[in-house]
């Protein structure tokens, strides 16, 4: 049914205006956003607590726009054709107010979020946020808020939400993106970049030539997105973590490396983990986009899993240190090394650990349900990546989200990869009960773990 829609104008003014180069974090995502023809928004649908009025939500939005330069940041193309960031001192932001009448406001808000996501975005003229208040019979029920990945990442969203709840009277903590870009151009920033590039050069010269080719691909559509929901993987990973002393991300990294070797035969395994970079000075609480891809090189062939864990931990520590780097320089370096070695290098497998640790998941008593795999959608989007594995929470378990380029990675191999990660984890957590070995191809050996 058609909705009644009107707009509320929010006038704002804040500090931190100016123009400057993109930060390394902004450079990390810019090319891929253009390739995907997407603004890669973060956010979603949030329910409105009882008693909050439209005026309250408008005032909160104005406070955010005034306080955080990221929400006032747009793109300006330089004379050299390279993008720059431009932070406005003031402006007007429009909130869509949608009256859904008797329709379920959750359904309407979810549909509206999808519409916002899919609608073309003008980085030079649009504010980097889209927002709607979904009302039922005049009362706000849900808010849709989406913010461009160019100005915020997951850690930035958490900082934004935390500050909004606390409403501190002191200035925002952390460097703005303009301040970050200025430091990155300084002598100290150039030293950091040079050291990181030396590390990347050493890794790239050890990376094996790419073996990623699907003899039956590319398929239609070229990019497939699937998901494996596992309820045995998380308890097993927790057992391995507690026994070994390594944190959950390290265990998942080691499992990914082992599974890649078993499914695709590569060794050493090259993994590009997403690093939030928030341990850097001035970035812990910054509302910005600072996440970048690091690079890990992990040898796994003929090595016990305990040793793979140690190697994954060492590789991750170094990768995290040198993920803070100009990605445009990294791209040039990769191209140069490929020319020197006369080979395409295997640098296109990515791992994004988005699992939110903290509150222990609630496991249902009884046998563990079997894992389920399904293909969700396909498109002809960016061919830059061979495989991206995203690790997310689901109630009582873990979702392994797989994005594959079918020219390089067969769909059957993607599903097998997820199942092998699970079977290896269960086997290692159980200590090899009854001498069973995980099935390297099907991942079908799923053992019951006592959740009680």
TrEMBL record:
It holds the Pfam family Condensation. It comes from the Bacteria. Residues 436-452 have a biased composition (Basic and acidic residues). Residues 67-343 form the Condensation domain. InterPro entries: CAT-like_dom_sf, Condensation_dom. Gene3D superfamilies: Chloramphenicol acetyltransferase-like domain, Nonribosomal peptide synthetase, condensation domain. This is Condensation domain-containing protein. Residues 431-452 are annotated as: Disordered.
């Amino acid at each position: 049914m058609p909705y009644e829609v009107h707009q509320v104008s929010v006038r704002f003014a804040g500090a931190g205006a100016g123009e400057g180069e993109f930060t390394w974090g902004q450079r990390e995502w810019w090319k891929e956003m253009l390739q995907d023809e997407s603004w890669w928004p973060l956010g979603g649908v949030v329910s409105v607590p009882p008693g909050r009025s439209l005026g309250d939500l408008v005032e909160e939005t104005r406070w955010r726009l005034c306080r955080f330069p990221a929400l006032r940041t747009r793109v300006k193309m330089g004379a050299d054709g390279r993008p720059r960031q431009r932070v406005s001192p003031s402006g007007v932001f429009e909130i869509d107010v949608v009256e859904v009448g008797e329709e379920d406001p959750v359904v309407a808000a979810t549909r509206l979020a999808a519409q916002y996501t899919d609608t073309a975005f003008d980085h030079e003229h649009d504010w980097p946020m889209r927002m709607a208040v979904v009302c039922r019979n005049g009362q706000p029920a849900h808010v849709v808020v989406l913010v461009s990945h160019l100005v915020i990442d997951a850690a930035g969203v958490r900082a934004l939400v935390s500050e909004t709840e606390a409403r501190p009277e002191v200035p925002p903590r952390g460097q703005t993106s303009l301040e970050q870009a200025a430091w990155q151009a300084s002598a100290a920033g150039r030293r950091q970049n040079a050291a990181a590039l030396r590390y990347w050069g050493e890794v790239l010269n050890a990376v094996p030539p790419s073996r990623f080719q699907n003899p039956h691909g590319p398929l239609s559509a070229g990019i497939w997105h699937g998901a494996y929901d596992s309820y045995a993987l998380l308890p097993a990973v927790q057992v391995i973590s507690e026994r070994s002393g390594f944190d959950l991300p390290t265990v998942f990294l080691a499992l990914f490396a082992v599974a890649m070797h078993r499914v695709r035969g590569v060794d050493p395994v090259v993994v590009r983990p997403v690093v939030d970079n928030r341990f850097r000075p001035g970035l812990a609480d910054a509302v910005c986009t600072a996440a970048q891809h690091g690079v890990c090189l992990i040898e796994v062939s003929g090595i016990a899993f305990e040793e793979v864990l140690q190697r994954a931990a060492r590789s991750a520590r170094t990768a995290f240190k040198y993920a803070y780097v100009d990605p445009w320089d990294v791209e040039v370096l990769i191209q140069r090394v490929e020319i020197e070695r006369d080979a395409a290098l295997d640098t296109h497998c990515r791992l994004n650990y988005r699992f939110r640790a903290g509150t222990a998941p609630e496991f249902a008593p009884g046998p563990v349900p079997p894992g389920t795999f399904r293909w969700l959608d396909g498109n002809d989007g960016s061919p830059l990546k061979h495989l991206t594995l995203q690790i997310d929470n689901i109630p009582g378990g873990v979702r392994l989200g797989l994005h594959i380029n079918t020219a390089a990675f067969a769909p059957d191999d993607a599903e097998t990869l997820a199942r092998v990660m699970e079977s290896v984890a269960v086997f290692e957590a159980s200590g090899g009960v009854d001498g069973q070995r995980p099935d390297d191809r099907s991942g079908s050996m799923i053992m019951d773990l006592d959740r009680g």
